[in-house]
Amino acid sequence: MTTEAHCIAPDETLAEVAKLMGDLDVGSFPVCDNDRLIGMITDRDIAVRAVARGEDPQKATAREVMTPEIVYVFDDQDVEEAARLFEAKKIRRLPVLSRAKRLVGIISIGDLAVNASTSLGGEVLKEVSEPSHAQAK
Fold it and tell me: Are 77 and 107 in contact (CB under 8 A)?
């Protein structure tokens, strides 16, 4: 996992978040209110939930477009549990929390591909990349 996860404040504008994504070359951030994780925001959230709907990125905030339903793993869970969540939820990044529910890092599919068994990383990528039923034609 990446241990130096940068949190975004819920009142940061989408323009600020997008600039920081570009500066740090990342596609998502945890959204934290004080030291508590309250959501995740992705570049796709900004594009689809805000820009495509005509929101002003200079005024709209992270809280307005973040995903508040947080899927996460604890730092003492094994990598197979993270893999099951990636597959079941069709997501590419998971916040990693301590048992005190404090953010300690983020694990990505790329982390699995590089650090876990080849078969586990490949299977997760395959499952996550398959279109959802809503997208299938």
Answer: no
